[in-house]
Recover the amino acids of this structure.
């Protein structure tokens, strides 16, 4: 099992390309099974007018990410957090958004 933490899906595509060039990783044992995207509520909007980062939503789309780890901050109002979670649920399946309050979570 290989776990990779990369800043964006575009970095993941490049890493996949490099791994597939290597003879050691051409075996079927090294298929990518799951991609998780982590979103922090503090980094959701690029400015105060609530414009979200386009690449953030692109990394959360169905077919790109199997699940989204949504790290909710305790500083923001609940209605604002719910709005962010609705945006993520619209990008992917609503059951794929794992809302957490910290950096640790159960992965089931």
């Amino acid at each position: 099992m290989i776990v990779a933490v990369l800043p964006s899906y575009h970095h993941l595509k490049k890493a996949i390309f490099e791994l597939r060039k290597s003879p050691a990783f051409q075996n079927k044992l090294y298929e990518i099974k799951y991609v998780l995207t982590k979103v922090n509520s503090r980094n959701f909007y690029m400015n105060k007018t609530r414009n979200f980062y386009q690449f953030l939503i692109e990394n959360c789309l169905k077919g790109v990410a199997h699940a989204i780890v949504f790290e909710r901050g305790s500083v923001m109002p609940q209605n604002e957090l719910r709005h962010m979670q609705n945006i993520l649920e619209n990008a992917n399946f609503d059951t794929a958004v794992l809302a957490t309050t910290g950096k640790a979570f159960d992965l089931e």
